[in-house]
Amino acid sequence: MVNLLIVDDSRTIREYFEYILGQDPDINIVGKACNGKEALSFVKKLKPDIIAMDIDMPVMDGLEATRQIMSSTPIPIIIVTARRNAKNKEVSMEALASGALTVVEKPAGIKSANNAEYIQLTKLIKTYSKVKVLTRRNLKRPAQPSKLQVVEPKQTIPDKEILKQIELISIGVSTGGPEVLKTILSSIPANFPVPIVAVQHITPGFLDSMVSWLNSISPLHIKVAENGEFIKPGVVYFAPDKQHMTVVSNKIKLIKNMVNNPICPSVDALFRSLLDNASKTLALLLTGMGSDGALAMKELYDRDALTVAQDKASSLIHGMPGEAIKINAVKHVLDLAGISKLLNNINELMK
């Protein structure tokens, strides 16, 4: 049974969500809060498994409530908000940076529980309620884009001779990714000497907003990958929605999900396309739930690729990197400061 707290300033929405979502036998509505401040109180008393949080509310909005909850009593939070917020890149990215697991558009109008939007929302609630989220200390609403403050632990950066061989950097990331990517990509200079290809699991329709947001804070050129284009140094290529991205002979090849694969784009698909050039590849597996990328990272590891996983302390969810560590697919485990240092070492060595 999933204990759900609904937070919305509209009484009609609260009651309708309770009626629709409560029809699922696996969901128990433990409370309904009318603003963020009331939600904070309910979290302490009701101890929900997951929260469906609106953004625009009086007294305390959903973004501030999310920050405070994730800083003190971390609970999985899904932002369920009006279309104007869900489609606004700054608002959506700030919600994810605050610790929300995803942002979805509030279903419009009065609909039945069998409506596709409610079926998807119900599925998200049950899936994300199982996520073990970590406390995120000292989260404050930023006045302007800023890097996460990371205390660098003792760690081992790869040997310089290994770094000199790197010709391509590949990244796999999921839940918690936008803020982590912001921290890493904003630390790399515009003339970075190698291409970067990345798969970010994100709600369909949000990728363009994330890419635009990252472009506004990173010196690098960041784009959604196009089929057939050659990869270039200093450019970050993200796999588009609903297509696997591979790299063949330094050229992007996009593949539609021809089989019923629930994960698309897939980190495994990207990593496996790099096996023939493994010894010149740096593969990074960052925060995210599930295990996508772990098995393919092991294959890269066995072919002498440089494989790096984000550490647990700096990951919102240590699923993907944790799975890779478990199967001995990782040569180095680094926090965000260590990963940024690693990439800047590559830049310095190849000047």
Question: Secondary structure elements and their pairing?
Answer:
Blueprint lengths: L1 E6 L3 H11 L5 E7 L2 H11 L3 E4 L8 H11 L4 E5 L1 H4 L2 H9 L4 E4 L10 H13 L31 H4 L4 E6 L3 H9 L10 E5 L6 H9 L5 E4 L10 E4 L4 E6 L2 E6 L10 H6 L8 E5 L8 H9 L3 E5 L9 H7 L5 E3 L1 H14 L2
Parallel strand pairs: 1-2, 1-3, 3-4, 4-5, 6-7, 6-12, 7-9, 8-9, 12-13, 13-14
Antiparallel strand pairs: 10-11
Helix pairs in contact: 2-3, 5-9, 8-13, 11-12
**Distance between the ends:** 56 Å
Global geometry: elongated
**What count of structural domains?**
2
Strand order in the sheet with the most strands: 8-9-7-6-12-13-14
Overall radius of gyration: 20 Å
- Say what the CATH topology of the largest domain is: Rossmann fold
Q: Helix/strand/pairing class, anyone?
A: alpha/beta
- Residue share in β-strands: 15-25%
Sheet bearing the most strands, described? 7 strands, parallel
Number of H- or I-type helical stretches: 13
Secondary-structure element series: EHEHEHEHHEHHEHEHEEEEHEHEHEH
Structure characterization notes:
This protein is α/β, with parallel strands linked by helices. The protein folds into 2 domains: 2-128, Rossmann fold, CATH 3.40.50.2300; 160-349, Methylesterase CheB, C-terminal domain (Rossmann fold). 33% of the residues lie in helices and 20% in strands. It has 13 helices and 14 strands. It has a 7-stranded parallel β-sheet, with helices on both faces. It has a 5-stranded parallel β-sheet with strand order 2-1-3-4-5, with helices on both faces. Helix 2 packs parallel to helix 3 (62-72). The longest helix has 14 residues, at 336-349. The protein is elongated and about 60 Å long. Residues 138-154 have low confidence and may be disordered.
